[in-house]
Amino acid sequence: QVQLVESGGDLVQPGGSLRLSCAASGSIYSIYDMGWYRQAPGKQRDLVATITSGGGTNYADSVKGRFTISRDNAKNTVYLQMNSLKPEDTAVYYCNADVAVIAGYFNVYWGQGTQVTVSL
Q1: Could you give the CA distance from residue 117 to residue 24 in angstroms, rounded to a whole number?
Q2: What percent of the chain has pLDDT over 70?
Q3: CB atoms within 10 A of CB 100
Q4: Under 8 Å between Cβ of 4 and 97
Q5: Cβ contact 99:106 at 8 Å
Q6: For the segment 35-79, what is each residue's pLDDT rounded down to a tens digit?
Q7: Contact present, 18 and 116 (Cβ < 8 Å)
Q8: Euclidean distance between CA atoms 47 and 59, whole angstroms
Q9: Cβ pair 80, 36 in contact under 8 A
Q10: Nearest CA-CA partner of 4 in 29, 46, 50, 36
Q11: Is residue 74 helix, strand or coil?
């Protein structure tokens, strides 16, 4: 079994910064793509950013230039540095990962989510 545990969500003022972390643990053979998604109340879950095992990144247009995704493969951890936060960034942030528990067999796993609130 594989678990993803997020941390770092908080209440922050507009213009502030937060760093989210997501650590994967369990019976892991290898981790491929990792990513962050977010879901605001009453809305669908949307992609924020993804990163490949080789470090290639992709961002939603709404966060380009403000958010940075990174990962530490030795620690099976993905990070999301969020700067210049706006009220519209308020959401529950979820991480996910494409994990192989044995060679050649992948599943997508999700974390439980961490709340980010941007408000005065």
Answers
A1: 24
A2: 100
A3: 15
A4: yes
A5: yes
A6: 999 999 999 999 999 999 999 999 999 999 999 999 999 999 999
A7: yes
A8: 8
A9: yes
A10: 36
A11: helix
CA distance 118 to 120: 7
- Please report the pLDDT score of residue 112 as a whole number: 97
Structure tokens at 47: 């992609």
The predicted-structure confidence for 16-42, as pLDDT tens digits, reads as follows: 999 999 999 999 999 999 999 999 999
Distance of CA 65 to the CA centre of its chain: 16
Contacts of 4 (CB under 8 A, 6+ apart): 22, 23, 24, 95, 96, 97, 109, 110, 111, 112
Token pair listed for 25: 């643990």
Using a 10 angstrom Cβ sphere, with 0-12 exposed, 13-18 middle and 19 or more buried, the burial of residue 98 is middle
- Write the secondary structure of 33-60 as one string of H (helix), E (strand) and C (coil): EEEEEEECCCCCCEEEEEECCCCCEEEC
